[in-house]
Amino acid sequence: MEDEEPPEEYVALCSFTGNGSDQLSVSRGDRLIVRAKPSSDWWWVELRGVNGYVPASHLLQGDAAEQQEVEDPWQDEEYFGSYGTLRLHLEMLSDKSRTEAFRKVIVRNSASLQEKVVMDLGCGTGIVSLFCAKLAQPAAVYAVEASSMAACTRELVKQNACEEVVTVLQGRAEEVQLPEQVDILVSEWMGNCLLFEYMVESVLLARDRWLRDGGTMWPSSATLTLVPCRAHGYYAEKMAFWENTYGLDFTPLQPLALQEFFAKPKFSHVMDPDDCLASPEDVIRLDMYTLQVADLEEMQGQFQFCLEKSGLFHGFSAWFSVCFKSLEEGGASVELNTGPNAEPTHWKQTLFMLDEPIFAHVGDSIRGSIILRRNPVWRRHMTVTLHWDISSHVQEALSCKAN
To answer: Quick check: 327 and 112 in contact, CB under 8 A?
Structure first.
């Protein structure tokens, strides 16, 4: 490796299985020598005389690794603090696609909700709990909220004359006590690229603790979707800009721009449906009845696209959809889709840019895998890795990796 960093000793916080000749497999507790840090996500390390890349998030330096205890691995103060203000709630409530999806599932199942017990986990301002109380006749709704917004939610429940049905409980899902088990567990737990923030873990723990046998999960399932795409506007804004800046050549800044803007995904990307180079594919599917907390540590999916358009291939775009099954046998389900062909949501899409765009042709094949790895220390964060290759009758196959 060129321009090596001074050697530093790190310890692997968890095991990692390398995928490819340039990645190194390590086990929890292995002591590694970090030789270079070419990006914030992947470091070049040496283990027992063998070199390779390892995710930086899996390593901790020196004696600090032996402690293993992090003051706040869930970053609760920051996380719940943000939900204790109106900014995020305004954004979520203003998302009509999101909010109307929950309203629709309650309206469609209003008859079946009668005399049922509902848990609304991460209730925020209590909008779903209030929908249940106003639009159906449940026996009880337990609105659980860990942030300080719970105090406001109690006022909203009283203001809307729902206090006889809705009980607001402040606390984390792992700690809160309910007086009884519930028939329906509803929660808007989804984050960017489906799993970011990992609120889904709290939902699974609540499911195992409080949902009756045969009870219903809303959402009932979730899917992550991927597509190869163009991103002319974003590439021009962040990379091509330096080619002619006020008549001057600023291209020496392009490597820095690549690292700063493309090394990590772009959240809240608004994608034009016409920028899809192929038909989207579902790459990861979650069944909310069988999904386990241990499954969240690493999830993998495969893809194979046949390009339907010629043009520059800038990267991949991802989004998710969730499905709410009906409480009635044979009843219609409700879907919330955050893709570019659906009504816009506050999640929008997530864009993963290649280092450099590639000109692709109709009929080219792009195949590979996507891996979502949970950060072993900061439990609300994750690393997304895309391994792919493109095969064409026009050019030889190219094999690359995008983070």
So the answer is: yes
